[in-house]
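cache lookup: miss for this entity combination. No prior model stored, computing from scratch. Input as submitted by user K.M.:
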Amino acid sequence: MDKPGVIMTRKIKTPGSSTRRWHRGIGVGASLFVVFLVITGLTLNHAHQLGLDQRHLSPRWLLRWYGMGDTEALLHFSTDGQWLSFAGSQLYLDGKAVTTATHGVGAVKYGDWLIAAGAKELLLLNSGGELIERLPWERSGGGNIEAIGHGTNGSLVVKSRGKAWVADAELLDWILPAEPPAAIEWSSPENAPAELQQAIASHYGGKGLSLEQLLLDLHSGRIFGWVGMLVYDLLALVLGFSALSGLVLWWRTRGNGKSNGRP
Amino acid sequence: MLMGVLLPTLAAADTVYETQSDFLNRAFAGSAPQTRAIWLSGEIKQSVRQLLGHDYPALRLRYWCQAPRTAWVLDEVGKELPITVGVVVDNQHIESLRVMVYRENRGGEVSTPAFTDQFNGLSLGADNALGASIDGITGATLSVQALTRLAGLALFLHGQTGCDHDA
């Protein structure tokens, strides 16, 4: 009971106070995210005028993050005056992209042909880089190609699971001789001329990542993969809740204002 | 739905239905003949281009011949990735056509024998067209077309090898 002359204060629970607390908390917490989205969104809206699609970034760590390949991981093989180079999934002949080939192992010249060996296939090319045949390696019970080279009589030899397989003259069949060739010269990577390496690196790596693409991925969360997208989805739901809670609060206070006789 | 988002996305992988050695064992009852090769040049190259609508991505194709039968391992792009197909031609007719490797995410129904059995017995007409139409599969149109082109290619190449007349 209130005593005369004493002002008692009582904590009045205003309608929606818990909603207001949530709304305030979410608003503060998400404000940085919202500001970030506003900045990236506004910038993207004017990407073309700002020339963002024409500006590229190529720091190695960023290209690696995007899985755009390490331009340092190139392999070059000299084949009697011509260079066969592996860069990611691309095969180059004298700096010109000719076909796809992965996990480069070696390359040799065989008669008029060039033979490029990936871990799981051989590629037969003519001296102009045209693909004669692509041979999946299905010998040696699923083993990969480990090396390619020439036997003493110039025969083509492939090493797989530690064993030396020898091709017939037309490279149509392979045999596993009881006695491997006495001396095999295995193909090994070499240092190609600098301008060739540069040409391949430029072609393989491209101009890099456009600034527009980077901003798009930051704006959507995709830069962090599916985790980033999930986090952005959750933040979007949180913002949605914030908007709804704001509506609820407005509706409730609107009703309170009217009942106090205020216009 | 949350679990679906949390589970890692599975990368598309090749589905291998038959290896080359298994295919050849099946085609030649365990005793595969020596490998031969046919060069896709000159008029053969032009005919191949007409059959496929493009050049075959190789200058040489290997095949196996035990007269009057040949066996071919051919590749053709369905939607985006190549489909590897093994075709056995006997006396100018397709004895069997099977998908050996399927790489796409969709349309794998063409790999079922229920679909590929349609090719059995087919031959080429005068205009290098298959002797019968192939019933398509909804959602696998491009794969069906790829297999149809390869069937025609195998029949055409069989005719170029002279294997029918080999002793």
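stored under new cache key. Chain A touches chain B at residues 124, 126, 130-134, 136, 138, 170, 172-173, 226, 230, 233 (CB under 8 Å).
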